[in-house]
Every structure is written in C-alpha cells, then in structure tokens.
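Annotated sample (chain length 432).
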Amino acid sequence: MNKITLILQREYLTRVKKKSFIIMTILGPILMAALIILPAFLADWSEATEKRIAVLDETGWFYDKFKDQDNIKFYHVYEGLEAEKAETLYKRGDMLLYIPLPELNLPVNAQLFSTKQPGLSVTAYVKSVMKQEVENRKLMASGIDPELIKAAKAKINLSTIKVDESGIETKSNTEVEVGLSILAGIMIYFFIFMFGVQVLKGVMEEKSSRIVEVIISSVKPFQLMMGKIIGIALVGLTQFLLWIVLTGVFVLIFQLGFAGDIDLFGQQSQMLQQAGNDGNAEQFILVMQLLNDTDFTTMILSFLFYFLGGYLLYAALFAAIGGAVDQDADTQQFMLPVSIPLIFSVALSGVIINQPDSSLAVWLSMIPFTSPIVMMMRIPFGVPLWQLWTSMALLILGFVGTTWLAGKIYRTGILMYGKKVDYAELWKWIRG
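Output written by the structure step:
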C-alpha cells in the first residue's frame, strides 16, 4: 500500500506541476466565466447605442403604430423615397422603413434601409407590428371585431408536480431537467475520456522509454497500475474543483469591479423577459425558481461519484491497452470496443431524457459500463433511492472486476516489446 501511495504522489505531483495543467486550470475558468459575463456586458454595451428609424408610410395604415422601445426610436417622414434616403441614411445616420402603397394587395411588403445591420430585434418588432395591423384590418373588413378574437384566445398553464412515495409534492419543469441532464451526461463523457486517455498515454510513454523496467524492479505491476490510475484521478478531481472555485471567483471579481453597474443575472433575466410575451416571462420566472429549488448538492455529489467510478473503471482498461501495445496506431483496435458503451450512452441520450423511467433507461443506469452517463442523465428527473444505491454498488463492483482483469493483461504486456498483440493473445494473458 505504501508503494501505491508513492506512485500516486509521483503521478499527481508530476502532472499538477506541468505547464499544460496550470494553463488549462486557469484558462478553463476564464472561458466559463466569460460565458456568464460577456452576454450581460455586451447587452449593457449594446443598449447604450440608440437606434432611430424613420418611417415612410405611403399607406397611412401604420401611423403611430410603431411605439418606441428601450433602444429603438421611431419618427415619421413624408418626402419621397430618394430624398428621405439621402436625408435619413447619410445625413442623420438613421434607418429608413419604407412601406409602399400597393395597387391591389394589402400592404404586406416593406423595405428597411440601413447603412449597418439593423439587428434581429428591430426586424422582428417591425414585422410583428405590421402583421398585427394587417390582420386587424382584414378582420374588420369581414365584419369581425379584432377584440373578440383577442378575447377568445386562451393561455394554458400546465404545471408538472412530482409526488414521491411519502406523498410530498414538488414542482418540476421538463425543460430545466433536460438541460441539466444533457449537461451532466456530456461532462461525464468528456472527463472520463480526457483523463482515461492520459492513463493510456502515460503507460505507453513509460513502456516505450523503458523506464517501466526500472520501476517494475521495485514494485509489482498491479501496484504501478493502481498508483497511476488513482493519481491521475486525483489530478482530474483537483482540476474540476479548481474550475468551479475559480469560475466563481472570476465572476465575483468582475461583479465587484463594476460596483453593480452590470447585474449579470438580473440583466440576463430582464433581457429574456423583454424578448418574449407575458407568458414567456412567467415561464422564465418559473424556470429560475426551479433552478433555485434544484438540489445541486445531490447533483454535484452524484457527479463526483460517477466521474470517479466511471473513470476508475475505464482507466483500468485504458491502462491495460497502454501496457499491451507499443505504438499509438496499435491502440485503435482495442480503444473502439472499450469506448462503445460510452458512445452508445451518448447516442441514446434523446431516448433517455424522453423516457427516463423506461426499462431501457433503468437497465443502462445499472450496467457499470453505461451507468456513469445514463444515471447522471436520469438524476435531474428524480431517481428512486434503491436504484441509485444499486447503480453505485454495481459500479464499484464493476471497477473491481475491470481492475482485476486489466491487471492480468497489464502485468504481462508491460514488459513485452516488438510483438503485435491481438485479442487471442490478450485472452491467453487473462487465462494465464
């Protein structure tokens, strides 16, 4: 056990001192913080630029129909098109909305002249105003009061409520759960592959440089493999926790630096509420409430367990592959079969999030090779405790089994050079 600890320390300290680890540990949180900061910062900056639109309406239908928005101001002009283009675009620097008088049809065509890209919010608002006015006039021409149509419209509010075995009711939102499910599953997939491949590369480097021959003279192959796997696991866990902490620190520093001038989350919520109608605003508020009520402690603890469990299981197999081959090209024939369960889990993510309680989802969340991804996809929807504990127990047993299996391959292949290894050869090593 002491030798495993020494190998673990060597692997951990060697990797955390590398420039690549330090750079990625700092760069990762900066990029994640930027995803939070930039939208609010750019939104605040863009709102400071007011857009003015001159309306040349030959129909007269839309006079005073365009109301000023937060950063969009409308005013009417009455000269000819060419004269107004010269005056509005080149002298004032504004945009020109031209609504021509149709000869036969309704005024459903318009042109927006601008020296710069007008933006989606501008075009969407102009089209919505014109659409509403044309529809109202068509209804009135048919003898139908548009207000009756509005009064006949109904908004359906469907709340989903989970009832557990003890009868406790909690509100839920499928959209929020789907988002958390996909995020958790993809992160597990990413981390298992990223740090699992590091184990494979590390074993191959030591084998190709013949350093392993010196190490094996002092420790058993199984001890070397376990020390390497656990050491790299701690490296991954350290980097993951540092990403979470540093991202929060960077966001907090930015928020304090601007002294409240830019409210990161308040600004984004205001933008989303203004972007839609009242129903969408209410939906957004509900989503924010559900996020606040989400048990992120359980999510994070489950993520850490399934990351470590899944990594340890697959890292043992990656270590066996690294010990069995001499060159990168030879790893492909073994990497694909080992990776298929992970790829299969991600490929079935649509089925899992659509039917998280189906037999397929439950069984895949129990099988150790697929449970790290599938169970993390199911947890946001709510998983019975017996299924969660069973999945965790099977994952631990799966890790023990794959480690035993990988150890038999590793101890033979680590000192074998210049021989092309196939599946028949691996089977001999396992049986031996």
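Annotation: Strands lie at 51-57, 72-76, 95-99, 111-113, 160-163, 169-172.
Annotation: The chain is about 70% helix and 5% strand.
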